[in-house]
Amino acid sequence: MDAKVLLTVRDIDFAIRGHAILQSVSLHVARGQIVTLIGPNGAGKSTLVRIVLGLRRPSAGHVELLSGARLGYMPQRLVLDPTLPLTVQRFVTLGTPAPRARVQALLAEVGAAQVIDSPVQAISGGELQRVLLARALLREPDLLVLDEPIQGVDLTGQYELYDLISNLRRQRGCGILMVSHELHLVMATTDQVVCLNRHVCCSGHPDHVARDPAYLALFGLDGARRLAIYHHQHNHHHDLHGTVVTDDKPHG
Description:
Blueprint: E1 5-16, E2 19-30, E3 34-38, H1 45-52, E4 60-65, E5 71-74, H2 88-92, H3 100-109, H4 125-137, E6 143-147, H5 155-172, E7 175-179, H6 183-189, E8 192-196, E9 200-204, H7 206-209, H8 213-218, E10 234-238, E11 244-251
């Protein structure tokens, strides 16, 4: 396996009671690369993620992770008992003990240092996604697997989270496999798109996929209604509570 390639998924089939969920799915993720799975509901995206994580066994094909590579996982959703007394500090270290200073540093890296002592149930949707990301980073992963990382976040928060994910890739050099429905944002922040609908309909650079007939047909787009690739440039950003913060340089 190429030392730069962290993950290889080759010819994966998966079926439940004879019903095909995935058919001949292949992809790879290299260091420093963001690969994004897109597709409609029921396309098999989350199933493929579970196979990559070893939580499901494929009917055929195989998954190969670079020897010694560490995985970090951010789930699509989190359901907690509202009566459970659980602070962010405690939640981040569940299953992976770490000193408070380490947790504080990770939360600061994702822009959520101020919630370390807050109950998990009391923080906002944007804060929760950043806490989940900090928890995924605790193991110093070589490969981050992010299943719908902007779930439950407003439009402003979505842009900020994608910007954060891109920065993490650049700063840490990790590979990222991401699932998303927010195509207009994903197209601008990913290196490769894999368009999935039980099988790989098309894949490649975002500019190429955006023009692919299979992609346009899958999302009901025609030449006059193609989804524009989203480029966001402005001279401010919004904090976790939506407050405008002026920047010296524009984001983009």
